[in-house]
What does this fold into?
Amino acid sequence: MENPGVTIDAFAERVRDSFARQGAMTLIGARLETLRPGYCALALTPRPETSQQHGYVHAGILATLVDSAGGYAGYTLFPADSSVLTVEFKLNLLAPAQGDRIVAEGFVVKSGRTLTITRGDVHAERNGERTLVAIMQQTLMVMRDTSDARRDRREASGAAAAPGASTGAADD
Amino acid sequence: MENPGVTIDAFAERVRDSFARQGAMTLIGARLETLRPGYCALALTPRPETSQQHGYVHAGILATLVDSAGGYAGYTLFPADSSVLTVEFKLNLLAPAQGDRIVAEGFVVKSGRTLTITRGDVHAERNGERTLVAIMQQTLMVMRDTSDARRDRREASGAAAAPGASTGAADD
Amino acid sequence: MENPGVTIDAFAERVRDSFARQGAMTLIGARLETLRPGYCALALTPRPETSQQHGYVHAGILATLVDSAGGYAGYTLFPADSSVLTVEFKLNLLAPAQGDRIVAEGFVVKSGRTLTITRGDVHAERNGERTLVAIMQQTLMVMRDTSDARRDRREASGAAAAPGASTGAADD
Amino acid sequence: MENPGVTIDAFAERVRDSFARQGAMTLIGARLETLRPGYCALALTPRPETSQQHGYVHAGILATLVDSAGGYAGYTLFPADSSVLTVEFKLNLLAPAQGDRIVAEGFVVKSGRTLTITRGDVHAERNGERTLVAIMQQTLMVMRDTSDARRDRREASGAAAAPGASTGAADD
It folds into this structure.
């Protein structure tokens, strides 16, 4: 996929800025691994703080990671002066999330003028082996003319450069 | 709804124990507010660490809270010697999650022998006003004969007394 | 809920017109039962043609009915010169759908400027008893300035007055 | 993927039998195109009866087709003496479904002891070109010891050899 209006370097910078501003990404220990047009991979290292009581990563933490991976994947194909909202996502949990590293990938399936649809995969890696632990299907919304310089609109949109943010203010 | 085999006091104790063992519940600052047969309410106070960059609570944090509320709601109707797995959930985001308190409620719609279906609502409260910020629909799985005393099965099931845990080991 | 711009009589007429034009509503035998602002109930009588092999109504037929009920519920709150698209829906199946009558209800949870979120319930009725057989959560999209008189836009939008229609052309 | 207990020929025969018994598959004009372990493709030719008013195939008809494709895909990996239930599915609509042929494919993502998770794609074909019009994510349930010879259990399970049937009786 291509985004004629924005280079991937420009998007990588925007996504990195967004990451740095999101408390929740820091809270769960998410790292930006790979960004290509229509694709994003995020990773985290399981810690006791991301776990339920048996040491597996909590489904909500997986949801946070893969929702953001899908959101940033979609965002790479958006116009320059826009932001991204998560409209909804659905997550199926397939196996316990444990290991050295959890990787969530987001893939754009269709990038539309207003809505973008993605799929997401979450793998757990242990000693070089990968296990598919969750899959996602997601709807994103493009918020046009919502630059970081326009604070009023940015607040209204809820999630400028912040996939996974709760949505809707701009849609009231 | 009623659970003839288990008193609500016994369930409240089991759920409190489960909460105390879950790192992710502590990480996001979740509190157990209300527990009745077929119903659970969890709450958190928004902090910079639970937010995306504009101060709203991140969708993944909302997902963590309401997935757990639904899971514990379902768990109240399960047999005594059992645990609960989240099979899948779907979350729609309706409005920015901001305010003094975020409350996630889980409601059992159908409690079956193997599967339980719930709905969830997430409200943001500010100065006594409530705004519906997200709604959820969820499938849970009953894991029978999975007591806390049987560590091997408990590990295999992934989510003994831990709704929201990643599932599937026992279903391999 | 209220729609200050359009009377319910006007909407009832638009929905009835839409119904009459939809081959699929006729194919499955759907009837428009009730229409209020933010609410719609559709019904059908189970026939061998709507069934899987044991006489229960097929999940796809239930999906067709409740997707349309949600879509028309949302449509009652839309501006006069607009149409409705189904963006996505999620359906949980709870019990076999059998009986004298299947009733699908759609309820608007949030009506936004661009997106509308609904929930749906499907009951099977037999000898006066109702059983909840399926629940739905759905996202709709408002297509503005898409009147029946503008055939080009109507074709492009895919689903003018036709919730449940496949979406997306206008969003390319 | 492999199913050591059942040959694909045996499954193809079971699926064909199931198809022949399902009124809804006949009603919408579905054809069984391809069946491999973990994969199923169904197709239909758009007719006025499967359409909404502008000639596109109705989303509910697409749902019926792809829910069944996913269900039969999962069923190919089930034990011989079992049946399949659809627990839930989620469908995103991407583009208007029009053309000479609609093809729905189901792919098994994980086949578990009790639950099977699938993804589905629906393409519209016109003059040799394919357009992705919908994507699905689905949860199926294995019903063990539910053969066609045991009518009582078959009725209770709701969907013996009938993916897409409304579920739940056996789970009460």
The longest strand of chain B covers residues 129-144. The interface with chain D takes residues 87-88, 90, 110, 112-115, 139, 141, 168, 170-172 of chain B (CB under 8 Å). Residues 148-163, 165-170 of chain B have pLDDT under 50 and may be disordered. The CA atoms of residues 65 and 125 of chain B lie 15 Å apart.
